[in-house]
Structures are given as C-alpha cells and as structure tokens.
Amino acid sequence: MTSLEIGFIALGFALILVFSLLGSGRRNGTFREIKAFSRLRKNIELSVEDGTRLHVSLGRGGLLGPQSAAAFAGLNLLREVSQVASDSDQPPLATTGEAVLALLAQDTLRANYKTLNIGEEFSNRYAQVVGLSAMAYSAGLMSPILDNEVSASALVGNFGEEVGLITTAGQRSRSFTLGGSDGLSSQAILFASANEALIGEELYASAAYLGGSTAQEASLRGQDILRILIALSIIGLALSNLIDVVL
Amino acid sequence: MTYNYSQDPEEQLPDWLKALRNQQDEEPVADETAAEKPAEDTDGSKEEEEEASEIVETNIPQESPPSADVEEETDPDWLAEIRQRHQEDSTADEREIRDDLEDTQPRLISTPPEEKVEEHAPSDEQLSEAFDEMETIESPEPEGEELAPGEVPSWLEALRPAGADKASGPASATQPSPRKERKEEQGPLAGLSGVLPVEPEITQIGGGKSHSGQLEISRIQKQHRSTLEEMIAGQSATSETVSQKVARPKPWLGWLVAGALLLASLLPLLSASESAPLPAANTVPAVSALYDLIEDLPQSAAVLVAFEVQASLYGEVEIAALSVVDHLVEKEAQINIVSTHPTGPALADRLMREGIGETESYLNLGYLSGGMAAIRHFASHPRETNLLPSLWNAPALQDLETLSDFDLLLIISSDADDARAWIEQVGAETSQDMAAVSSAQASPLLYAYLQSEPATLKGLVGGIQGAASYENLRNQDGAARYYWDSYSYVLGAAILLILSIGLYKRILPGEPQQAAQSEEEKP
Amino acid sequence: MSKWRAPFSTAIAMATGILLLISLFVPQLNIVRASLLGWAILLSAVALLLGLVNLFQVHLHNIRNKEKGIYSFVLLAGMITTFLITIVQGREGVLADWLFNSVQVPLESSLVALLAISLTLMAARLIQERKDMASQIFAATLVLILLGSAPIFGLDLPLFSSVITPFISRVLSLGGLRALLIGVGLGTLATGIRILIGSDRPFSG
C-alpha cells in the first residue's frame, strides 16, 4: 500500500472522527434532498396506515468483500424502516441472497422488536434467504413481491442484472420500488425500471437520510470532502498533463 | 307562597292578579271572536275551539290590576330601558318565525298567527303592570294583607306548564285549569292528559333575541389574523401524501416482445444464415493483444484460469471463452481451473468436456469459498487454501509455489466485480500477466484496467463481438460465427421494438400522451 | 448475558478490523492476518449451509401453513433430492451432473432470457413514460450503443460500430463509470471506517 493510499484512508478516518465529535449531541443535517428517500418515507407511512407490508431486500453481497458495504447500508435502512413499521399490521419482511446477511437482518429486526417491547412477536421468518444464486434469488423474490400485501419494496444492497426481474415483479404488483446497488449494470437497470433509484454513493447515505446517527451524518460530510479532493486532484493532474503536452 | 293543587287556585290569587287576568282575558277574547271566522283551515273542530275559549274565559281574571293606570304615568328608567330593548328585539323576522311555528303546529285556539303572537308576547302594558306589581309588593303593604313569597307576573306565569294554573296572561288561554288536567286535543298525543303542551306554545312566549351570524372581529384580532396569514404563506406548500400506483405493463406487450425476439433469434439459426459480416481481425486492439499473449506462451505453459461464471450467463460466456480456451489447448498449455462460485467448477467441466472436447489436459482445483478474502489468501498462499491438498501433488503443480509461478492468469468472468476482485487482489501480490474473457456487460469496466499504466490487464475478449473478432484472428469458424447472424437480427428486433413501443404514442396523431398514473387509493 | 452481547461483539469487530489494517503495514503480523482470513473463509462456507437451512425452514413453514404449499413442496423435494444424490455420487456423478447440466443451467438461462424481454420492455417504457432529460439521454445512449454493437439485420453500420459506439462506451461512459466507482469506493471506505470505530453495529442486536 502506497503512502498516498495510507494518507487518504487516514484523512477519511480523521474527517469522520472530527465531524462526529463536532456534531455530537445535535443533528446538523443540511444535506441536499434526495427525492428517493422522501418518497420512501411517504410510502412507509402509507403502508403503515394501509396495513400493508414493507419489503426490504439486502441483495447477495457477502461480508468478505467490498460489496459488504452495500449490505451494511441495506441493514441500516432495514433498521430505520423497521423502527417505524414493526408494530404495524404487517411487519416488514427482509430478504437476502446470502446466509450471513440473513442472520444479521434477523438480529437487526429482533433488536428493534425488543426496543418496541414487542419482542415476543418477532419471528425468524421475517428475515429469510430466498435464493443462493443470482437468478434463484430473483425468482425467490417474486413470490413475496407479487403478494398483494407488499406495497413498497426497497432493494438496497449488492445486486446484479437480476434486479431487472425484481423490479418487473414490483411493476406487476403495482407497488413502489426503490433501488440502490453498488453494481454498475444494476444501477443502470434500476434507473430505468425502479420508481426511484439511488445512484452512486446515495446508497450509502440511506441511514443518515432516514434518521440516522451523528456518526452517519459525519461520514457523509467526510465523503463529501474526500470527493471534492479527488475531483480537484483529477482536474489538477489532467491540467498538468495538458500543460506538459502543450509545452 | 306554597301552591296547593287540591284547592281552587282562583281563591288563592291576590286581587291585583285577578284584576290583571280579567283585563287580559278581555283582550284575547275579543281577538278570538274576530279570528274564529277566517280560521276555517285550521286543525281542530269548532267544539274544541269553543271549549278552549271557555277555558280562556274561565282562567282569565276579570279584574284589571289596580295599578295599571298608575304605572303608565310613572315609568322608571330601568323599565323604560327594558321596554325599549324588548321593542327592538321583536322584529318582523321573529314574527315570521313565530308565524311559521304557528302554522306547523296544531292549533287549540283558532286565532290568526299575528294575534296569537301578540297574545303570548307580554305587551308593554303587561310588563309595566308586572313590574308595578313588583314595586307594589316591595312597598309597605297595607295592613292585613300580606304578600306571599313567590308571586310572579302574568307573563311569567304564562310560562308555567299545563296544570299549573298561575298564568294570568294570554298563555293561560292555552293552559288548562289545574283542577281538570288538560287533555291534548291535537297531534300524536291527542286524547292524553297531563302532557306538556306543544312546543310552539311554550317557546313562543317572549321570543328569543336573534343573534347575528356574523363574527365580530376586533381590530387587534384582524391584525393577528393578517400576521398569521403571512406566516403560513411563507411556508412551502406541503405536497399531498397520496399513494401513487405504478402503471402495470400490459401483458400482451410482453408476449409481443418475446415472440419478436424469439423469431429474430431462431430464424437465422434454423436457416444457418451467415450473411452478417464478422468484425475485422485487428479492429479491437484488446482482442489482438490477448491473441498475441497466448501465441507467445511457451510450450506446456502453466495457465491458471479463474472461472467466475454464473450458470445463468454461461451461454454468453461460453461463446466468448470457447475460442480462447481452444487456443490454449492448441498451445498445449496446462490449464488449472479454480472458482469462487459454487457452480464454477461444474460449469468449467462442462466447458472443457462439451465445448472443447478435452478431458485430460486440465485440472479442476474446485471451489474456493470466501469471495475476495479467499482470492487474497490464495494469491499469497495458494497451497494453504482450503482446496484439496492432493491436487497440489499433481505433476503439473508440483513445481508451483506461488501464483507468480504461473505463466498466465486468465480470468473468465460473467460479472465485472468478480473480474475486478481477481485483478486487484492478485495484482497486488504478483506481477504475472493477466488477461480476461468476459460477458459484454462486464467488458466496458474492464477496459479501464487495459488502459491503465502500467496496464493491469494485457488482453480482453468481451462478449460475442470479441469472440467473433478472435475467431477471425484465428481464421476459424466457431460458436461466434454460428450465433453471429442470430445476434445481429435480435439486436435489430430489439431496437425496433424499443423505438416503436416507446414512440408510438408520440408519433400517432391525436393520441393523448399518458403520464404516469397517479391515483388516490391503492386497490 | 444479553446486555454484554452488544459491547462484546463490537469489541471483537473493532479489534479484528484494526488488527487486519495494521497487518498491512507490519509484515510480522502476516501470520495473524492469514489465520483470520482462513477463519473467515471457513465461516463463509458454513454460511452457505446456513443459507440452505434457512431456506428449508421457511419453505417448511409455508407447507405447514399451506401458504403456496405446492411450490414450497416442490422446492424442498428438489433440494433434498439433489443434496442426497450429490452426497452419494459426488459432484461428477452421472445423475448429479445430469441434474446440474440439464435442469439447473437451463432454468437459470431461461430466467436470463426472460430478463432480456423485461429489459426491452423497460427501455420502451422509459421512452414512453419519462420525459426528464436524464431519461431521454439514457434512452438515446442505449439506442446508439445497440446500433454499434453488431450489424443490424445483417447490415454493418460503420459509423456506429467504428466511431460512435466506441467513443460512447470507452470514453464517455467510462468516465461516468469511474465516477460511480469513486463514489461507491468512498462509501465503502466510510462504511468500513464507521465499523472500525464502532459507530455502525449491524451485529450487536
């Protein structure tokens, strides 16, 4: 690992820590509006009022690679959603394509149920593995989505091109679909087919936008600064190369 | 004064009250006689009316109150104010209302509505008399005569319910004598005695003050209102939360698209068409680079093939990989296959056996669980990973300790992320040449590794297009040539379908453009 | 015990992450890193079995409650049959090989074919229903890429195949892809840091 890479990681560390400490105890959310999250929040409220079910799908990403970050973003969203909707008529359903992710989802839901003092109503079936390969996963997801009780689906995690079949099922059931993935082809498919799509790093902002902690907001700010630095570096390097070429 | 129902209340009335009654009886009786003639449309019989008039005559005191004349001459200020207020309140609308009430209720006395209103409404004279009486009561009483507590003026007496024979005014005309209980003559309670009289006869007395329906707003309240309006106007309007239904795709469109694409793909295959021109040999530099890389391999080179293919996309990757793997077999390379997908080893066997027809010149190292972490571990300690140890004892692998000992790492991948994982993890540990065969959707991302300096990837064959170019380089017709025409027609069909379905509503004249449906309720 | 679970698991996660990070700079810790990675690899294999167990439980419940019981029954029957056959014969056994090559691969391939039809319809609906600039650019780019990917109905279009499509795919879209990757990378970095400092705890329950 080069010193540049080490320095970049250290800078990210420092920014997140500093913003966490500065924002400790108060919420300083002044982020731009992401329409996807606003619509998701409305649909959560509507589904609780209607007595219909929310569905959160965490994708197929395991925890032993970079796709785990998308999986954690999905778990954060699941936590925020279940805090609102766990005591509704139809509790939220979490589906995954990977076993460890299903265990974490069960853990998250169980914790929320305990917090709401309805721990006895929790069942392990509220977080389930529906398929272990890409197409098996999409086929397994069609059943809960086409079920009339699901009014909104949030597909947040690591998906491949099979997400196109999942959003098609959402369209057939006339339910709201929000999609976010770290895969590039899946982002393109979600942009074309989902009601709302999270592009790029919007996926990782889900927890902060849906009422997350100070640290999550701080990490968003840290990401913003790092992104600006990268952009300036790219522009600077491109200009310097251009000058070298010209001269 | 306590009221004893067993006694004749007439005997207990004071003289002044009796006089007042008599005076009032004379007035309504005169009105009744005048109204009897035109009252033919009223409910009730003439006999009932006569009986009622008898009752009126009986109850109305004959004597006029002695203080009436005195009252007119000396009106105190407070009384004049009351009288004036009473006059203001008694508006024509009220009289109409009373008239309406009179019209809807059965009548006991056939008097004109206007006169009846006047009957029940205590007149000014009556009021003054009443208050005079009160004054008289308060003034020193002549000896021998004690005023009993609880004496009330006539108009107030008229408010008593039926059976309480205290009223001296016109109301008493409708109230029966306490001795004989009043028998209801009209309405649903006809024939019953001791019931309350009909509502208008009670509520008509002293018609209520009419209140304006307009809210009285003070100046300060108006200022507060305008301030509040400014505050609310400054807020952004909140959008109404309505559930939006997603427009469902039409089923027949799906069948149309499926049929068209199937037809476009099958017809060239069935007709064995080879009309579509293959891409030129050197048009894709990445393909040429891979060809040259394999051509430059030494005899019996050790090649590690990372087979990261999902079963669903095997069909496409097979077309792209067949020509390259066949080239390796042709060069007599020792192919060693490993995969981090559970189905990877089985698919690799299928490729080698059914695609290449080769069963001996390759070694399938099996499934490597753990994803990227496993790749990293394998890159640094290949013999210590959880593959079968006996495999490493094979003659082809006996001299290989690290990945750098391999001559080429060929990544066959259906997904860009899998290929990236191998490139980034192995590239960090070794400096061996790497090349890739991928599906069409993964190849754009892998071009970035081709264009980097130094180039991480030395060659790339992407999708059926890359395979067709590779076959052209080898001057051999393979799977790409077989499927090339079908691919060409399917692409054309897809473009036509997308444009025609997408644009037909905009092109056809008179077709309204439909926006996304938005409805109030979800079914 | 339950109240110690959260801080205990958080401590393990933080310690492991920091140890792995330090091992990248301290060569003496390579052995530790190798061991930890080995454990993770083993756990991921076990997780695969756990996934099968979870799948089994869910569909068994469906059969018992008769919620789409027939589909769950077919799934469980297929799962158990394949499992037993592969255990008995091995991966290269005749029946196991037949089940994989003649049942599983065609099934998954047919789903991809269904995906192709769905994507075609999706593209058409995008043009039909969305009027915003981003969607129109997306649709136009899609059509241009398709026109240059191969000859259309057997006719080569050199303007698209040699000029437009390579420019779009290897210059314009590659820049966008890299930007997206940078964003995803930053998000991954931030998530990893939050887990290392113990702020994100998806495992603590």
Briefly say what this structure is:
The complex is a heterotrimer of chains A (about 250), B (about 525) and C (about 200). With about 250 residues, chain A is an alpha/beta fold.
Keywords:
heterotrimer; B: 523 residues; alpha/beta; Rossmann fold; six-stranded parallel sheet; 21 helices; 6 strands; disordered N terminus; C: 205 residues; mainly alpha; 6 helices
Can you walk me through this structure?
The complex is a heterotrimer of chains A (247), B (523) and C (205). Chain A has 247 residues and is α/β, with parallel strands linked by helices. Chain A contains 9 helices and 6 strands. A 6-stranded parallel sheet of chain A has the order 3-2-1-4-5-6, with helices on both faces. In chain A, strand 2 (93-96), helix 4 (99-115) and strand 3 form a beta-alpha-beta unit. Chain A is globular and about 70 Å long. Chain B has 523 residues and is an alpha/beta fold. Chain B has 2 domains: 9-179, no CATH class; 281-476, Rossmann fold, CATH 3.40.50.10160. Chain B is built from 21 helices and 6 strands. Chain B has a 6-stranded parallel sheet, sandwiched between helices. In chain B, strand 2, helix 16 (344-356) and strand 3 form a beta-alpha-beta unit. In chain B, helix 15 (314-330) packs parallel to helix 20 and helix 17 (371-380) packs parallel to helix 18 (416-429). The radius of gyration of chain B is 56 Å and the shape is rod-shaped. The two termini of chain B are 74 Å apart. Chain C is mainly alpha-helical and 205 residues long. Chain C folds into 2 domains: 1-89, no CATH class; 130-205, no CATH class. The interface between A and C is large, with 73 and 60 residues.
